[in-house]
């Protein structure tokens, strides 16, 4: 604590944000049409000290999904408020703060979709992923799970996958991370949050307990990308730069929005592939041990695999095509 105070008094970066909202949401699933079933926010000041916290259940108007994970049954959620009913209070907790979450892209996208359904927008302009921050700090973690980050800082988890306790654990782990970044002059990995503006329900959604079928909502179609103008020079080799024309595939969650990563790759002259084959030059994934089809194919074909941080570094110096 004394070291933290000395950091705050002598070396605190003036460019750092003035406040943070550490957020965790539990959901009915991971897809675009899934809903939030509970949400928690810990508000922190500029140096990571807790100001207050807030928690709410949310009626998702559908089956609650993996009850064995979050523990919230249809009966528990039946009398909970709808998201539109808590949207203003949630917004008050987020306003003028950087949203902090573990795998922040997931929490942000879930929140943005709920606000779009409510015909509103979350007052969030930037987010910070604690996975990305731990990489920037070079923390010796065995993996990118919240429990590993908590264990590194000696934070005890009481109820895993309970939004309020997950947010508490993350807040307690974020504070020493923030002070370490300030002490070492680390630039925080802040990313822009883009609210959704084009949401429309394809059909009325039934409340929990009703037997009508749930129909997903419509989303903007994927953008058509121009073909890569360069020939494929082959596979990426460790220690050498990427080369224009290389076929790059992505798998799993990323701290930077996938669409933004793909845009950067295309701007650098790379070919973004939607699948992995023998022609794929490189697979980018933060979880190479996952059992996704892309990861399995990459290993079967001997395709090189790098994580998002390494790929971002490689993008800074892409060699021109032959």
- Overall geometry: globular
Note the beta-strand portion.
15-25%
**Name of the CATH superfamily of the largest domain:** Ribonuclease H-like superfamily/Ribonuclease H
The CATH topology of the largest domain corresponds to Nucleotidyltransferase, domain 5
Short description:
By secondary structure, this protein is an alpha/beta fold. It contains eleven helices and ten strands.
List keywords for this structure.
Rossmann fold; 6-stranded mixed sheet; alpha/beta; Nucleotidyltransferase, domain 5; 322 residues; 33% helix; globular; 2 domains
Secondary structure elements and pairings:
Blueprint: H1 2-10, E1 19-27, E2 36-45, E3 50-57, H2 67-70, H3 74-77, H4 83-94, E4 98-101, H5 104-117, E5 126-129, H6 130-137, H7 146-152, H8 163-184, E6 190-192, E7 247-251, H9 258-267, E8 271-273, E9 282-285, H10 293-301, E10 305-306, H11 308-315
If you had to describe this structure to a student in words, what would you say it looks like?
The protein has 322 residues and is of the alpha/beta class. The chain has 2 domains: 10-192, Ribonuclease H-like superfamily/Ribonuclease H (Nucleotidyltransferase, domain 5); 222-322, Rossmann fold (3-Layer(aba) Sandwich), CATH 3.40.50.10190. Helices cover 33% and strands 16% of the residues. The chain contains 11 helices and 10 strands. The strands form 2 sheets. A 6-stranded mixed sheet has the order 3-2-1-4-5-6, with helices on both faces. Strands 8-7-9-10 form a 4-stranded parallel sheet, with helices on both faces. A hairpin with an 8-residue loop joins strand 1 and strand 2 (36-45). The longest helix is centred in the middle third of the chain and has 22 residues, at 163-184. It is globular. The model is unreliable at 202-222 (pLDDT under 50).
């Amino acid at each position: 604590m004394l070291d933290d105070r000395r950091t705050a008094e002598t070396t605190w970066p003036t460019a750092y944000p003035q406040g943070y909202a550490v957020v965790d949401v539990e959901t009915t699933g991971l897809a675009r049409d899934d809903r939030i079933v509970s949400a928690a926010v810990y508000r922190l000041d500029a140096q990571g000290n807790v100001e207050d916290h807030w928690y709410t259940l949310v009626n998702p108007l559908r089956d609650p999904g993996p009850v064995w994970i979050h523990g919230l049954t249809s009966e528990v959620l039946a009398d909970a408020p709808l998201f539109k009913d808590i949207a203003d209070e949630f917004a008050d907790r987020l306003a003028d703060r950087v949203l902090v979450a573990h795998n922040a892209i997931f929490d942000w996208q879930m929140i943005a979709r709920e606000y779009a359904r409510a015909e509103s927008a979350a007052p969030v302009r930037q987010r910070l992923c604690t996975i990305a921050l731990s990489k920037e700090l070079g923390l010796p973690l065995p993996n990118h799970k919240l429990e590993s980050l908590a264990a590194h800082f000696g934070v005890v988890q009481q109820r895993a996958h309970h939004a309020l306790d997950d947010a508490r654990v993350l807040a307690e782990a974020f504070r020493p991370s923030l002070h370490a970044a300030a002490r070492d002059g680390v630039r925080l990995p802040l990313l822009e949050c883009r609210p959704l503006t084009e949401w429309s329900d394809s059909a009325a959604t039934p409340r929990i307990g009703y037997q009508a079928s749930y129909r997903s909502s419509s989303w903007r179609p994927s953008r058509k990308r121009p073909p890569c103008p360069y020939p494929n020079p082959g596979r990426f080799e460790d220690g050498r730069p990427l080369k224009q024309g290389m076929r790059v595939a992505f798998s799993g969650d990323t701290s930077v929005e996938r669409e933004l990563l793909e845009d950067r790759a295309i701007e650098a002259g790379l070919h973004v592939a939607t699948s992995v084959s023998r022609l794929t030059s490189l697979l980018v994934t933060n979880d190479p041990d996952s059992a996704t089809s892309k990861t399995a194919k990459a290993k079967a074909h001997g395709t090189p695999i790098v994580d998002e941080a390494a790929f971002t570094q490689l993008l800074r110096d892409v060699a021109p095509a032959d």
